[in-house]
């Protein structure tokens, strides 16, 4: 790898994989939730994440590439961490608290990734991609705010 374009493509494929994995993870966290507000937040963000994938398809299109993912080690690590915690069979409220924290970790990872992609897209003059990636970033920032607010209410 020698160019910003190659790095951009690599990071794009990484996020494409991550977003696909997160659709499944969000569905699982929604089904595990004992709190209707938390269940709704995870379900809503699952739908947004499906939209993130469609926008990433648009970024691939601007590059003239077929959409594909490469294993995102960051998201894989978070999923593995969640699986290990679930083996402890926590009570429902504790699982809600854990899942909100896991959601926040994931959102921070995605926010950082999208910020990097947006910067590279700007450098490469990919204006359509910047727009699409910014839309994903805004939704990730909103999701982080939501899980943080929910965590405050659950721990009371």
Fold and architecture overview:
There is one protein chain. This protein is mainly alpha-helical. It has a single domain (4-154), classed as Ferritin, core subunit, four-helix bundle (Ferritin), CATH 1.20.1260.10. It contains 5 helices and no strands. Helix 1 packs parallel to helix 3. It is elongated and about 50 Å long.
| Number of separate helices | 5
* Uncertain regions spanning at least 5 consecutive residues: none
Kindly state the percentage of residues in helix. Answer: over 70%
Taken in chain order, the helices and strands follow as: HHHHH
Question: Main sheet, how many strands, which sense, barrel?
Answer: none
- State Rg: 16 Å
Please identify which CATH superfamily we are dealing with. Answer: Ferritin, core subunit, four-helix bundle
Tell me the name of the CATH class.
Mainly Alpha
What is the CATH third-level topology name?
Ferritin
> SS-based structural class?
mainly alpha
- Rounded to the nearest angstrom, the distance between the terminal CA atoms is 49 Å
Summed over residues and divided by their number, the pLDDT gives a mean of: 96
Number of domains: 1
Shape: elongated
* Annotated CATH architecture: Up-down Bundle
* Number of E-state strands: 0
DSSP strand content = under 5%
